[in-house]
Amino acid sequence: MAMAADEIEALIRAALPDAVVEIRDLAGDGDHYAARVISPSFAGMSRVRQHQLVYKALGGRMGGELHALQLETSVPSGDHE
Amino acid sequence: MTDAKERIDALVKSNDVVLFMKGSALFPQCGFSSRAVAILDHLGVPFETVDVLQDQEIRAGIKDYSDWPTIPQLYVKGEFVGGSDIMMEMFESGELQQLIKAEA
Q1: Which of A68, B26, B76, B96 has the fewest other C-beta atoms within 10 Å?
Q2: List of residues 6+ apart from B73 with CB closer than 8 A
């Protein structure tokens, strides 16, 4: 059921190559993670859309083999094009 | 529309603030649901909860309804707002208070 942190990171990076991804294993059990994803691709999107993009990157694992992922998304600061 | 989707639609449209969660407001069965309830309690607004553990059809259907893979899910005046992380971010920035007050 569990997923490795670098597996999660690789999936997110594959879908959002410009993203800065930071994963923390919250409980040390390989099942409860927090992810911070910072990407210019998120510009102009609602939080719901941003999270949906990350969930799509995880390809249906979220809510299944990946039970708990606290997610924080943002656009890089200083990026105001 | 499927049966589940119709039922979800009715719940979302007939309640100003409704949280689909695991367990009840009094006895949440998951940390994320518990956090979502704590935020709404703190706001002091009336809200309805739907325990998806009691209803497999809604548990599966709600994920398609919002194209969102996890529970809890908050809806305000018929609109999907987000899960517990978004609720927390919006609570901390004051947006959630504004949204709910404006809609109440």
Answers
A1: B26
A2: B19, B20, B62, B66, B80, B82, B83
What is the domain-level CATH number for residue B93? 3.40.30.10
Residue % of chain B over a pLDDT of 70: 97
Q: Does B46 touch chain A (CB under 8 A)?
A: no
Determine the Cα–Cα distance for residues A67 and A3; give it in Å rounded to an integer: 9
Q: Does B99 touch chain A (CB under 8 A)?
A: no
The verdict on A21 touching B (C-beta cutoff 8 Å) is no
Beta carbons of A1 and A67 less than 8 angstroms apart? yes
Answer whether residue A1 shows pLDDT above 60. Answer: no
Alpha-carbon distance values, A4 to A10, A29, A32, A57 (Å): 10, 10, 10, 15
Domain A5-74 matching CATH 3.30.300.90: the answer reads yes
Question: Residue B85 and residue A70: Cβ atoms within 8 Å?
Answer: yes
Which is it for strands A68-74 and A32-38: parallel, antiparallel or unpaired?
A: parallel
Interchain CB distance below 8 Å, A72 and B68: no
In this model, does residue A81 exceed pLDDT 60? Answer: no
Q: Which domain holds residue B85?
A: 3-103
H or E stretch covering B85: helix B84-93
Contact B69 A62 (CB under 8 A): yes
- Counting the structural domains of chain B, the total is 1
